[in-house]
Amino acid sequence: MLNYVWLALILLGFASAVYLDVSDISSNKFRNDEQLECIVSFASEFRNQNSFDTKILISKKTFSEFYGQSIENDLTIPVKLTKTNQKDIYQSFIKIDNSFPDIWREIAAASGKDDDLIGKVHLTSPIDSAKYSAKITLQSVSFVFLKKVTNEAIKIAGTAVEIALGLIGLMAMWLGVMKVAEDAGLIKIIANFIKPVTKRIFPEIPPDHPAIGSMVMNISANMLGLGNAATPFGLKAMEELDTLNPNKGTATNSMITFLAINTAGLTLIPATAIAVRAAASSSDPTIIIGTTMFAAFCATLTGLTTAKLFHLISAGKEKFLETIKKNLKKILLVLLVIISLVAISSVGAFKFLSFIFNDTSFSIFKKTIEVISVIAIPVIIVAFIGFGAYKKVKVYEQFVEGAKEGFNIAVRIIPYLVAMLVAIAIFRAGGAMNNWLVPILKIITDPLGMPAEALPMALMRPLSGSGSLGIMAEIMKVHGPDSFIGILVSTFFGSTETTFYVLAVYFGAVNVKNTRYALPVGLIADVAGIIAALFIVTLLYG
Questions:
Q1: pLDDT over 80 (residue 205)
Q2: Measuring CA to CA, which residue among 463, 519, 513 is closest to residue 492?
Q3: Torsion sign, CA atoms 22, 26, 32, 36
């Protein structure tokens, strides 16, 4: 299925780019070769200079009529003018930033550097000794979206390699530590300790298999927000799971279940979202911890349930029906709990829970988790290496042996990472998401009460971590971090994961090309997390 989704991302992105570019050219959206009336500050001391800095003034009425886009205030624009061979015509150079109108920023981005705007100014008649009426003609631009597709695809391909190479050091360190712990028998001890849980979630894996320990370390690191440790543990877990794979290149049930937990983004402290909220001057950056935990738990539960259902369906109709009959009481109990939660929420009982959730006990819990997050990495390293030394393991030699695997894994994931990130970049840059996908999905999300401003964040989160981070920061800048929308998008970010990135990296590490139903499981978990986030944030802060 991932093959079809990958192809669809590329084709939709390209088709959208062509459609939008043709529309812009036919309507002359950027007013190519047309003159915009303005006033130039032109003091007498400038007359004999070949190049000088001055200002251009454009009224908001003139600008709005010219481009068909309204602006709030008149524009006063610093500009550098350079004489040309033609009388009263000057080459203009404008340095722009985010305060400039959107259409000018589009023109600048399409013509070269994002902050350079080049054109020509024609002085028409003097107003007084220091001002001239003038007309400015900006450089012609076309095929804006196709240029974006090209630039973003090239840029993200380099970024993908940087990401993979950046993992080499982390992979070497953590796999070295894991090798020492494995030889000392510590991983086996951890696996035996949590055997009652893992036996139910991963029945296909022997309880004492090394994959169990790696998966536990990965899940624990994710819960504590230790992303730099979680990825190496996860990749190591995938390698161990692949040793049990009878059909190399095809995802096993255990791999899909493990990735369902990863893509659900189960986290206790959403550190990145909290940091962005703090930077946006939130009065309470950590207010999203409770909502994030609730939404992430719902996403994880949904991901696991969906994965198990797909496992049963793939096993055949008879096996599916037999399992349903065998576990009918448990299924009815789960449904009863869900109905009870909905009923309790409908009468506002969670308002009381939110009161308890914000008192001193929650503050102590939050501080405890934060302390654990800080000390977890050094404690794990010292404990694992120390236990190895206690067990007479040659810790240095075994660390080096484990670290060698890190380089090989990091290099192996490069093609998969490049392929996935390039497809996502083409889809984003081509405008398919904002111009096609968002309007279609609004038909579904509007009845649910999701604000239209939050929908791009919900769609971007499974595709791109940096893209969703940028959207979240922009939304909080416009609406405020403590607004309903600000809290909602922060919860989206903390309670879901970049599903496409996770699948590309983790399956790429073991050369799995047939991902079976891993993608729909991950996306269903994402949808559950988004809906749960909308539900809890609306309930508590709506």
A1: yes
A2: 463
A3: negative
